[in-house]
Every structure is written in structure tokens, then in C-alpha cells.
Amino acid sequence: MAELVKLTMNGREITAEKGTLLIEAARQNGIEIPSFCYYEGLTLQAACRMCLVEVEKTPKLQVGCTLPVAEGMVVHTESAVVKESRKGTLEFLLTNHPLDCPVCDKGGECELQDMVFRYGAGESRFRERKIHVPEAQWSPVVFYDAPRCILCYRCVRACDEGMGVKALGVANRGAISEIIPNHEDHLECDECGACIDICPVGALTSGTYRYQTRPWEMTHVGTICTHCADGCRTTLGVRNDKIIRGNNRDHSGVNGEFLCVKGRYAFDFVEHPERLQSPMLRSGDQFESISWAHALEIAAKKFSAAKSFGVIGSNHTTNEENYFLAKMARLGLKTENIDHHRTGDLATLFDALSGKAALSGKNDALATTDDLYHAKAILVVGADLSQQHPFLAYQARANFRHHTSHVYTVTTGPVREEAQAAASVRVEKGGELAGVESLRDKLKAEAGLVIVFGDAIQGDALRKLVAFGDSLGMPVKYICLVDYSNSRGAFDMGVVPKNGGLSLQQMLAADLDVLWVVGANPLKNATMSPKSFLVVQDLFMTETARHADLVLPAASAYEKTGTVTNVCGEAQKLKHAVKVMGTKTDLEIMGLIAKEMKLDLGIWLPEKVFEEIRKNIHGYDVSKAVLDLGAVTTAPLNGRVAALPGLIKSSGDTLFTSGSLTKYSKILNEVMESPGVLYRGQGPGARGQ
Ligand code: SF4
Ligand code: SF4
Ligand code: SF4
Ligand code: FES
């Protein structure tokens, strides 16, 4: 157990672990020492002097953010001399800072404004003209206003340490110091916006949010990002039924405050003018708008009359929707032909791990996002984490910085993780297992390992990888990478063929009477039998919807409640943020079709369906109250589903793409077209620092 020390703070005796910084010991005991440059998780800077405190028997004020606690220390954080010092520090910070709070985006949530309100002087003694520097736009999403900058260097450290990008630096000295981007007048970076979010003042502002609203005019809806499979929680700022910003400043969810460019900005597809807002029926080469009542009637009639049926589900719809779809297919439509676009070989992994503690409900061999942060060693096989799984990459980087974990990579191209790697192996496609084997001696010397692998490892190769893990004689956990926000949930809820049902590819090739596609776009890269009556539920006129006979406009994840399960099997709650006129949630559409068909499938409210999931899906028996508190790790049942080696394929999305949604995000497209595209255009791994 860690050694404790006793000290006195503001007359109160407190204890803290030896080595704890004064500022942290104070926070742990409900005492706030103001700070600007100190930021938990980043390296110490000691630049702003806002945290000065009085420590008895020391000759001058001490820096609370760098001084560790010591036995018997007597500290005063609110004495007259400390308050006077804060007043002085703020007076200096305001020397050049413009007093444009009424129009500054940060007004109302600005740390400088709050500190001046609490500790600042009533008036300034500076009469000199303030230095003016015009505002700069560094990218479609990042703006910098130098005079507002208080040079705390949080942004520089967040970009370097948190993101591993190093796109920000400091130019000049003294009063004319300013933050600069990595390419003269613009950024070439991940465009994650972490620097904007961490800025305590309004020096860095967001291209999408600036001058849109005051923060107190929004409602804040905590939900889950709908892009990749990492399951980052995002708080959407909503005003007048419009999403204005995304962030996770309350550090809730598995991702703390991390969001990538997609989670932070790419919610604008919701209001894209091409959103489908009315059901549409094919009439020759054209579509005609029809009422919901008429559309449901047609669907029900066709479904009831069909002798052969295929159902293709989604990687984006909720667990409740996937569960209901699987139930409706099997019990209502009496078909086992149900599948979704599988992007990782979960079936073989679960089967290969069957019998191990992993799948007895404890999940010991399936790694969580937190395991990635605490693992002694991480092996990345056949994946470019920074491009395809930005949050998992962030966890691995944070682990390396905070716990000096050992990182190993086996990839076909350069990846950013190599910058931290204890060993990297570059292989030809198909040579991943041999690459892993070549690391055997090094890996054997580790105390534990998390293996993260992409779609290059499936079928037999995956069984061999698990056998390799077993042979190391240490705790080994796995993360099977899948692409989208509920890829894992679609698998767990049974949107997969069992008992001889047709796979997605087989359904496209078969002459089925009806093919029902819910939130997927299988015809993007494939064709299908022209004989099937095609019903499509989607947000947009995708390649698949264009072929449909009946199109039903669906709500997006930001317009729904329910749950989704991320790449690591962590279930989290979605919360409805906005409504788009004319659409219905996929669950409601299915429920209404079932009702029209007079099928008895129970109530289709998300909460009711979740109760059924708790009872019927192995590993999902989690109470609503627990789910309300955050992510819950689920445990899938082993070996239930036929693996389809060879047919499992990741879409290979990058940091700036996520299937069809990317096409409809104006801001992602602007970012793609900005000068920073110089390196992004070279595809995954091009940066490969
Ligand atoms: S947007 Fe992200 S990657 Fe770009 S400079 Fe800011 S922190 Fe760095
Ligand atoms: S831009 Fe913001 S975060 Fe960066 S140094 Fe200036 S005040 Fe600090
Ligand atoms: S890492 Fe994935 S889940 Fe997280 S914000 Fe980015 S796209 Fe969304
Ligand atoms: S918070 Fe301590 S010097 Fe800035």
C-alpha cells in the first residue's frame, strides 16, 4: 500500500499519498487551488503562477502544481498574501488580453473570466495600448486569436502528448509569444479539436461552433458517437433542435475527454438537405413520395406474402433494434436468412476462446478500453489504430506515457504506434502471423499482453493467434477490431445466420421474394438479384436505396434512445438529441410493420426491448441503473455462429471517413479538402511517425 503523509491545509489536517502534488492533494480534499497551465494527465509546465500557495517555513510562495506533499507541511491556499498574488497574476494576464468577453465563444465557460471574477482587481493599472494581432484560421475547424492566449501551453501538450501529433509550437518570446501551427499558416494534423477544448480561454475556437450561440442557451445531451466502433461518449450541445457542438468535457464515458474529428464535428450529416424525410415507392425509374400508412401497408403485404425472405441488418442501429430485427426475422418472418456486414471475425475469436474464463461471464480474455490503458504490453497486428480506431490508439499512447507500457506492431505499412514501439515488424499482406512469431522471445519476457488485431487475422489465422497467445504462458487478452458504432452489438444480438441461414453475400445472390435492408448499404460494392422486392430503411438515398422498391426514412443514432456496444464489448446508452421531421426510428418502423402484419412480437419501446435483451442475450443482464452510470462490459456466448473466413472485410475507413455518413458531413469534407489533405490523401498510415 502506498505510503501516506499528513499535512495541514487551511487549518484542516489531511492525508495524501506520498508524492502527490499539492494541487491534487487539495482537490482530493475538496479544496481548489486555481490553475491554468496544470492539467491532469499532461506533463507539468509551471508557466502561469496561478497556483501559488503559502507553505509555512518557506521564504516565498510555492508553486502548488509542482510541489509534492510532505509530512507536517502547513499550507494556506486562501490567505491574504495568496489572494494578492492571484490578483497580480491575473492583472499581468490581462495586460494584452482583449476584454471582448461579450462576443467571445468562451464567455460563460472561460476559466480566465471565472478567475478574474473571483480574484481579479476591480480595475487595471495598465494604460498602454494592447498588442493587436489578427485572428488566424489554421484549418476549417481550428481558429487562433493570439491576444486572447494566456500561454499556458495546454494545447501544445495535448497535441504532442495526448494525440502524438506535435502540430503546435511556440514562437517568439515575452509579450509577443504566440502559439503557431506546424505548417507556416495552417495545420496538418488530426483536426481532433482537443487543443480547442482544452484551451482555458477563447484563444482557440472551433470553426463549427464559433459565433453560433452562448453556451447557456444550449441543452447538453450525453450520448455515444455514431462513427467508429470505439464508443466514445459525446455531449451534444443542442439549440432549437439543432446540434451545435460535440465535446466530452465532463470526462464521462470510457473515453474521458477524448474525441476524434468525427466525434467532435461530424454530427452535421443529421441536417443534410438530402436526408430522406418521406417514404418513397418505386414507380418505373422514379420514386414517388407516399404516406407512412401506405408504406407500412405495402411492406406488410409484401412481407406476409413472401415465400423466401432475406434480412440485412446494420452496424449502426441500436442493440434494441438489432435484437428486435433478429426476433422479427426468426419468429415473425420465419427465416434464418439474417446477417450484417461483418468487419471482424468475432465468431472465430469467441469460439477459439470458448471454455476459457473469458466467456464464462467474466470476460477475462477480452480486453476492455481500460485494459488497453493498463496493459503491460500491447501487440497491434494488421491494423492502423490511429487511422481506424482513434480512441484505442489514444488509450495505447496514454498507457505508454503514464505507465511506460511496451508496444509492438506487426503491420503492412507505417503506423503512428511505431513511434512508441519496443519492436516493429513490417510484413507483406498475409505475413502477419509470421511477423507475430518473430516477436515470440520479446513477448515472452512481458508480464501480460493485449493483442489488438484487424481483419487480416480471421479463421484459421485467428485460431493460430490464440494458440500463440496461450503458448506465451501469461495473461493474454484480445481486441478483435470491428468497424462501426454497433458492429459488436449487431453480432451479439444475433443479426447473423444460424442453422443454415444465408449469409449477406448469399442473400444478395439468391432470388428471394423479399430482401429487407435495415440501415446498411450492401450494394455500394456489390450487385443483387433483380427479382427480389427490395425494402430499404436508411437516412439517405444510398446506392442500395436507389435500387429499392420501397424506401423508408430512418432516424440516425443522434435521434434515438437505446444502447450500443463498442469494439471492446462495452454497452452504453444512446440519448435522443434531436428530431428530424418525417423520419422514424428503425425500431418504430419494425414495430409498425409487425403490427400491420398482426405479428405478436411484444412492445417495441427501447426500454421494453432492453428488458428482453437482459433476459435472453448472454452477458447483457445489466440493470438500467448500472447502465445509467456508464459503460457496462458484456460477455458474449461462445461459438454460436458460423464464422465466414474470407467474407469478413473491414471497410478500411480512415480518421476522416466512416462509411456513407462521411459523404453527408459537410465539415468532414471541408477538412478533407483543406491543405492538411497533403498527408491525409496518402491514405492510412501515411503519417507513420
Ligand atoms: S486539432 Fe488535434 S491534432 Fe490538430 S493541433 Fe489541435 S490537438 Fe493537435
Ligand atoms: S491557445 Fe489556449 S491552450 Fe494554447 S497556450 Fe494559448 S491559452 Fe493556452
Ligand atoms: S474514436 Fe470513434 S467513437 Fe471516438 S469520437 Fe472518433 S469516431 Fe467517434
Ligand atoms: S498551474 Fe501551477 S504554474 Fe500554472
Task: Please give a structural write-up.
- With 689 residues, this protein is α/β, with parallel strands linked by helices.
- It has four domains: 4-93, Ubiquitin-like (UB roll); 114-271, Alpha-Beta Plaits, CATH 3.30.70.20; 280-339 and 494-653, 3-Layer(aba) Sandwich (Rossmann fold), CATH 3.40.50.740; 346-481, Dimethylsulfoxide Reductase, domain 2, CATH 3.40.228.10.
- The strands form seven sheets. A seven-stranded mixed sheet has the order 15-14-25-24-23-16-17. A five-stranded mixed sheet has the order 2-1-5-3-4, with helices on both faces. The chain has a five-stranded parallel sheet with strand order 20-19-18-21-22.
- The longest helix is centred in the first third of the chain and has 14 residues, at 80-93.
- The structure holds iron/sulfur cluster (3 copies) and FE2/S2 (inorganic) cluster (FES).
- Residues 225, 227-228, 230-232, 259-260, 262-263, 390-391 line the site of one iron/sulfur cluster.
User: What about the largest sheet?
Assistant: 7 strands, mixed
Determine the CATH topology of the largest domain.
Answer: Rossmann fold
Tell me the strand order in the biggest sheet.
15-14-25-24-23-16-17
Category by helix and strand content: alpha/beta
- What is the typical, i.e. mean, pLDDT? 92
Number of strands: 28
Kindly provide the radius of gyration, computed on alpha-carbon positions and rounded to a whole number of angstroms.
27 Å
Oligomer: single chain
- How many alpha or pi helices? 24
For this structure, what is the CATH class of the largest domain? Alpha Beta
Strand content: 15-25%
Could you give the distance between the termini? Answer: 39 Å
Bound molecules: iron/sulfur cluster, FE2/S2 (inorganic) cluster
